[in-house]
Design goal:
homodimer, 180 residues, Rossmann fold, 5-stranded parallel beta sheet, 7 helices, 5 strands, 44% helix, globular
Chain lengths: 180, 180
């Protein structure tokens, strides 16, 4: 059994967290057990009652972290894909993982807000800017970028393939996975 | 990696679910990866907002089931210890596990209500009978015993050691674990 780890993706809505989680997960599955914990799916299945206040977002992030640690404890390489906008809560998740000697890699999925507004794949930014969505991260709710992320991918200028390589390089360099 | 499974303990408060989960888990750890999901702990960590209506209990049980399946998918032998009073919700958890080809063993941790009231280790039955606790299973809230459990342990007459052996026998007979 390989040893588990947590790759924590954080970034704005639409920045590419889910896409990257799946692409990185695909590559890792060749060498280890992988589970992707998607913030939106988890909300639907585990946190239907939660809203988007800081308190509620924190609860959702803590649930994600708890389930991630449970899996990582058993050798699973966990990738979380959730906006997780608050730096203190992400730091709390890192501490909780490291307390259990679970390696924790914070990856900032960075895209300029303007690019996201221009692309607006799901039409959410338009609605948020029109005031139709409360607590929309980046528009009407804060996003605190990581001050010292373990890895940064610039999804507004890199291809998915490039960003995947950047992340995998860090995982390999830190000895968390090995490709033969 | 061994293949995962879910041992689902159900029974009244004080019947011995947590004790049995720990004792069975201890034995299984010699041969496989084990995680115990305790209903009360999960409530504290994952479901602080939930009460004890049927709807809320069902949500808690579904969360337990979801996390159990996530772990079992990765070869972990999961033991859940939660009252889980409603037969339809337990049946739903069985179907969800079996849909993923995860073996699901329902163990009825059976003790007569009178014995539990007499013992009343935590003093909860006294308070429930005095009307101080709403929605207390067995007193002011229903408990639907399994009609076709995979295994029954009678904790009001068996020792913990005896009940553990009864459960392990079923797990071995079903080919879910092997002791060498």
């Amino acid at each position: 059994m390989s040893s588990g780890a947590i790759l924590w993706l954080t970034g704005l809505s639409g920045a590419g967290k889910t896409t990257l989680a799946q692409a990185v997960g695909e590559r890792l599955r060749a060498v280890t057990a992988v589970e992707i914990l998607d913030g939106e799916e988890l909300r639907r299945d585990l946190s239907q009652e939660l809203g988007f206040s800081k308190a509620d977002r924190d609860i959702n992030v803590r649930r994600l972290g708890l389930i991630g640690r449970l899996l990582a404890r058993h050798g699973v390489f966990v990738i979380t894909a959730a906006i997780s906008p608050y730096a203190d809560t992400r730091a709390e998740m890192r501490r909780a993982a490291e307390r259990e000697r679970i390696p924790f890699v914070e990856a900032f999925v960075d895209s300029s807000l303007q690019t996201l507004i221009d692309r607006d794949v799901k039409g959410l930014y338009r609605r948020a800017l029109a005031g139709e969505i409360d607590h929309f991260t980046g528009i009407s709710d804060p996003y605190e970028p990581p001050s010292q992320p373990d890895v940064v991918v610039k999804t507004d200028v890199e291809s998915v393939r490039e960003s995947v390589e950047v992340i995998l390089r860090v995982l390999v360099d830190r000895g968390l996975v090995a490709f033969h």
